[in-house]
From TrEMBL:
GO terms for molecular function: pseudouridine synthase activity; RNA binding. It comes from the Eukaryota. One of its GO terms (biological process) is pseudouridine synthesis. This is Mitochondrial mRNA pseudouridine synthase RPUSD3.
Length: 333
């Protein structure tokens, strides 16, 4: 079990399906649409903290950064309250300096524009004409291109800054590896952006991929309310490449989205940056799709350029079900 302990923070590569901590309620829709994540339902990262404290000889570890359950990637734990406060300060500074986290995702299809910066407004629309109790239908995210200053002040519109870049794609453009730099990821806005704006839903995303419909295997934007949350549709060419042959086999595909880079500006005493990098290729759950589709990640070298970045911490921690069970048993002793 590999990890990186640097400058009083422990950096892990959290696998897809492992939640931050246990929740009281379980949704049947989650188990139906995310069986790969549901297989880790009895485990949580919080359960492993006592064992990690023993391994690294530290009395305290606090989770300060963790991707959501449907995402893998960089996870940060602080060794003291002072380090936690310092981390939060660096995150606020990163936002003010537009040093946003980077995400890498294997997507269905390839965007028409391979690289572009976006400034979008986000509106959470409610369906008022029908009383629907399904949690998926309570509110839905809508991207807008125009807004007023008053709408932003009233918090009717939230501003989102993104930069997407296609790192690689298949020869027939049936799939691509896309890097997205986003100012925030509340309400799964990165997954929604990839589906609703680029028409390239994340491979294995059985919820937000419903925003995209296909006409003769060509993607088109579907109606905001006129769709059901079922198994993700995969074009015939992509199913052939991934060797998906049996009915319902798409549900076994994990959601291929990954937090790949996090910058902490001014983390060191000399005010130089700490850059944490962990490409999607480091996650074992995504190796099959990356190798089969021949998608490769670019080297994360730009963060090492110049003198403002003192060091880059490469994260190489992966955990599977057996290891999670072992850690849980150790923590309960």
């Amino acid at each position: 079990m590999l990890s990186t302990l640097t400058s009083h923070i422990l950096v892990l590569n959290k696998p897809y399906g492992l939640k931050r901590q246990h929740v009281l309620s379980k949704s049947p829709s989650f188990i139906k649409l995310n069986p790969a994540a549901a297989s880790l339902d009895e485990y949580s990262l919080k359960d492993a903290i006592p064992a990690l404290c023993e391994i690294y000889h530290t009395p305290q570890l606090t989770i300060v950064k963790c991707p959501d359950r449907y995402m893998s990637g960089i996870t940060v734990l602080a060794s003291s309250d002072k380090v936690t406060a310092k981390f939060d300060k660096c995150i606020r500074r990163a936002r003010s300096e537009f040093l946003f986290p980077k995400y890498q995702a294997v997507c269905v299809g390839t965007p028409k524009v391979r690289e572009k910066k976006h400034v979008l407004g986000i509106v959470m629309e409610e369906r008022k004409d029908v009383n629907i109790k399904d949690r998926f239908n309570e509110k839905r995210m809508v991207f807008v291109n125009t807004w007023s200053k008053n709408e932003v002040k009233r918090a009717d519109v939230s501003l989102l800054r993104l930069h997407h870049k296609v790192l690689s794609s298949t020869s027939d453009e049936s799939a691509s590896l896309i890097e997205v730099c986003s100012s925030w990821n509340r309400a799964h806005c990165v997954r929604t952006f990839l589906a609703a704006k680029l028409l390239t839903p994340v491979l294995g995303d059985h919820i937000f991929s419903a925003r995209v419909k296909y006409v003769f295997d060509k993607p088109v934007l579907g109606d905001l309310w006129n769709f059901d949350h079922h198994m993700q549709y995969l074009p015939a060419k992509l199913k052939e490449k991934l060797k998906v042959r049996r009915k319902g086999e798409e549900l076994t595909i994990p959601e291929h989205i990954h937090l790949s880079q996090l910058t902490l500006p001014g983390y060191y005493r000399d005010q130089q940056n700490l850059v944490l990098t962990c490409p999607i290729s480091s996650s074992s759950a995504f190796q099959y799709a990356l190798n089969t589709l021949e998608l490769s990640c670019e080297e994360e070298t730009e963060s090492g350029k110049g003198s403002e970045n003192r060091g880059i911490a490469e994260v190489g921690f992966n955990i599977n079900v057996a290891e999670a069970e072992s850690i849980r048993d150790q923590s309960s002793v």
